[in-house]
Write a structure and sequence with these properties.
472 residues; alpha+beta; Alpha-Beta Plaits; Trigger factor, domain 2; Chitinase A, domain 3; five-stranded mixed beta sheet; five-stranded antiparallel beta sheet; 12 strands; 20% strand
Length: 472
Amino acid sequence: MKVTIDSKKGLKTNLKILVEKKIIDEQMVIRLNELSKTVNLKGFRPGKVPVEVLKRQFGKAIYGEVLEKILKETSTKALEEKKIKVAGQPKLDLKSYGEGKDLTYTLEIDELPSIKLQSLENIKFVDYEVKITEEETKTKLEDIAKNQNNFKDKTENETAVIGDLVIFDYEAKVENKKFDGGEGKNTQIVLGKDLFIKGFDNQLVGAKKKDIKEVTVTLPENYPKKEYANKKANFECKILNIKKPEATKIDDEFAKNLGAKDLNDLKIMVNKQIQSQYKMSLDAISKDNILNQIEKIHNVEIPDNLLNQELSIITQGLKKEDIEKNKNENLKIAKKRIKLGLILNELGEANKLKVEEQELKNEIQKQVQSMPGQEKQILDYYQKNPAAASSLRGNIYEEKILNLIKEKSKQTKKVISLQEAEKILKKEHDLKHNHDHNHENKKSEKSPGKKQTGKLKKASKIVKKNKKIRKK
């Protein structure tokens, strides 16, 4: 095999590969001998079909099979020989081939750029810790208690008001005719939530236990029986019971019902939960800040095919006029995503970071533990969806790279109150909202604080090395 660089411009390289017919002939003989031992043909004993007969009858098909194998093997060797890191799929163009001939073809390649990694020592970020007060924990507990929906029976003389739980049987008719789905037993609704049928709740206000209430509503557009959708229905409701909401007492019993040992243990759990929620959001802001700094200090040439692929993802499902309208902004976003993906991947490779199988299993196990009762579904999902497992691996890989950056950069630890955390998150939300609004209206692309801060595509996904060859 002979490999030569036909042309090279920037990240685009064209290789010319020559495979001598001698190599192809040898592969043909090997394949024919393999088939002669397994193929059954009329007039010959099993496994005793002469090679010459196979070649006459199946020669073209076998050549095609051998050619495919040789193209795959030689193209991989050619890339290794020239030490080329491929971005995406090379384009293969057959120039000369056929039985008894040399094989000549070209590979059009987009290379991954060579990245000179910069020092991370000047990267700065804030590691926030949110301090939760006893009063804030108490307020959260009260909110939880309000959602416990404890109800106490009303007397027969008390009427139903908004917020009460009404239990009833019903029969419904459309145009004075009963219909499928028009009956219900022990139906329960909390008045005011309007979760049954729009307008139904208010007509039960004032009802008493044992009353028969007539309710008229329009069935929803998405009613399961299409013939009744948007039609008026008359419900005859027999009121079985009415219950009024009762304040939940926040005590040890309340805590045990929520899975805690006692009230003090529940307070600790709630405190940690609030901290964790805010910490996650604040860490996301710090992460975006780190990534913005990483992008600024590196110069990276972007391969055309990766850029086109990313633009295709960003604009998927959009109208042509919208794509054209936001062309410059989409290009900017695509370049940033790819650039960061390439830099992060280079950092991972340079520091020999990798995701062990046990780490992947541990992450899946965390998800299993966080969703009681759905253990089997989660495990089945990852076993049957290799792409999902690959995506999870990418998340772990990216997290490792970010932790590496944090270790080498300048970290400032800051303890803040819940109010301060709210202000930081609101400011970030407003900046992103303004950016999105301006992007929509094509205004002030270079204004301060208008940069994209959304989650970036995982590094391992962006720079995935695909060894497949795409034929022209």
